[in-house]
């Protein structure tokens, strides 16, 4: 992936080679500081664009790109857009950027916030909100404190774009409001989702309504169990309840679980329930159940407790947490 400074050097030394660049990582400021129109127009093969905010610039708001730059971007074959750490002053700045990239079908939104969260309804009067995104196939949302701008934007104004979602990843949900937004979004697109990852959510995963998870229709599921944050709400028991929602043969083929820490002895039996539930005939297509453990003792516990899955030849327990993300 090219950075803005590398790209500028490349363009100055050999303009024709810029047409070979497929991925670009840059800040809004760097886009505005170049002879950006000329450079961007040369990126005729650009497929991935990552716009991020530098850590030392987090107090500065996102600077809206010039209309000329947005028009040039709209003509490029960008399929994947990743926005990280941006502070949007107004909602229409986000809307204007997204709607100028009609070819994007893989959208990543990480730790971005609105400086004026009360302005969403006001902004509706200031922008052409009838403009719609293209159909998305992949969506990744990394939550953080007050990071609700993107999910609210999608659910209010871009529902049509969500109807074809196949791969969805949520991570770092911070509050009950975040989980409500996850539930709302999954409820809307649960018929199309085939690969689902819910990452780094600790025990508060139990705040999600299990009925919105399309366990019977997805093919790949990834999630975390973190015993370092144990509460009275047991996440393993919660996942069992979601598996029990499946009453007819489903599509689930692969299940990946990160297990951090070690569970107390009195809670080990919850894994027996996982074993019984996943061994039912409704999970006839299940080929892989892979668990990544942080504590060596958990490896033996899980192998013992998941005996049915072990006998079916689908279980694998390995030491060392996996930084798996989306698919």
Describe this structure in words.
By secondary structure, the chain is an alpha/beta fold. It is 32% helix and 20% strand. The chain contains 13 helices and 14 strands. The strands form 2 sheets. Strands 1-2-3-4-6-8-9-10-11-12-13-14 form a 12-stranded parallel β-sheet. Strands 5-7 form a two-stranded parallel ribbon. Strand 12 (254-260), helix 11 (269-278) and strand 13 (288-293) form a beta-alpha-beta unit. Helix 10 (235-244) runs parallel beside helix 11. The radius of gyration is 22 Å and the shape is elongated. The model has no long low-confidence stretch (mean pLDDT 82).
Question: What's the arrangement of secondary structure elements?
Answer:
Elements lengths: L1 E2 H10 L9 E4 L1 H6 L2 H6 L6 E5 L14 H8 L5 E5 L2 E2 L2 H9 L6 E5 L2 E2 L5 H5 L13 E5 L6 H9 L1 H4 L4 E5 L4 H14 L5 E5 L20 E7 L8 H10 L9 E7 L8 H10 L9 E6 L2 H10 L1 H5 L3 E5 L8
Parallel strand pairs: 1-2, 2-3, 3-4, 4-6, 5-7, 6-8, 8-9, 9-10, 10-11, 11-12, 12-13, 13-14
Helix pairs in contact: 10-11
Can you tag this structure with a few keywords?
327 residues, alpha/beta, twelve-stranded parallel β-sheet, two-stranded parallel ribbon, 32% helix, elongated
Brief sketch in words of this structure:
Helix content is 32%, strand content 20%. The protein has 13 helices and 14 strands. The chain has helices at residues 4-13, 28-33, 36-41, 67-74, 91-99, 120-124, 149-157, 159-162, 176-189, 235-244, 269-278, 296-305, 307-311, and strands at 2-3, 23-26, 48-52, 80-84, 87-88, 106-110, 113-114, 138-142, 167-171, 195-199, 220-226, 254-260, 288-293, 315-319.
């Amino acid at each position: 992936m090219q950075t803005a400074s590398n790209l500028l050097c490349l363009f100055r030394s050999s303009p024709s080679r810029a047409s070979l660049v497929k991925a670009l990582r840059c800040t809004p400021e760097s886009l505005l500081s170049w002879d950006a129109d000329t450079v961007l127009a040369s990126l005729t093969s650009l497929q991935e664009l990552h716009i991020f905010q530098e850590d030392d610039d987090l107090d500065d708001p996102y600077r809206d790109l010039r209309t000329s730059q947005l028009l040039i971007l709209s003509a490029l074959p960008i399929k994947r857009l990743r926005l990280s750490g941006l502070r949007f002053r107004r909602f229409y700045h986000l809307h204007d950027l997204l709607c100028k990239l009609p070819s994007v079908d893989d959208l990543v939104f990480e730790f971005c916030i609105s400086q004026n969260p009360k302005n969403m309804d006001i902004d509706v009067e200031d922008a052409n909100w009838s403009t719609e995104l293209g159909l998305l196939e992949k969506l990744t949302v990394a939550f953080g404190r007050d990071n609700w701008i993107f999910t609210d934007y999608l659910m209010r104004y871009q529902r049509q774009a969500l109807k074809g979602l196949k791969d969805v990843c949520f991570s770092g949900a911070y509050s009950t409001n975040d989980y409500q937004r996850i539930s709302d979004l999954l409820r809307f697109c649960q018929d199309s989702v085939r690969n689902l990852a819910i990452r780094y959510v600790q025990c508060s995963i139990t705040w999600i309504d299990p009925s919105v998870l399309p366990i019977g229709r997805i093919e790949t599921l990834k999630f975390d169990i973190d015993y370092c944050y144990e509460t009275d709400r047991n996440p393993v028991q919660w996942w069992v309840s979601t598996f029990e929602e499946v009453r007819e043969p489903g599509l689930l083929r692969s299940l990946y679980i990160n297990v951090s820490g070690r569970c107390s002895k009195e809670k080990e039996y919850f894994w027996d329930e996982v074993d019984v539930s996943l061994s039912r005939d409704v999970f006839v297509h299940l080929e892989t159940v892979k668990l990544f453990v942080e504590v060596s003792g958990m490896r033996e516990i899980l192998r013992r407790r998941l005996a049915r899955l072990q006998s079916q030849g689908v279980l694998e327990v390995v030491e060392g947490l996996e930084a798996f993300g989306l698919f």
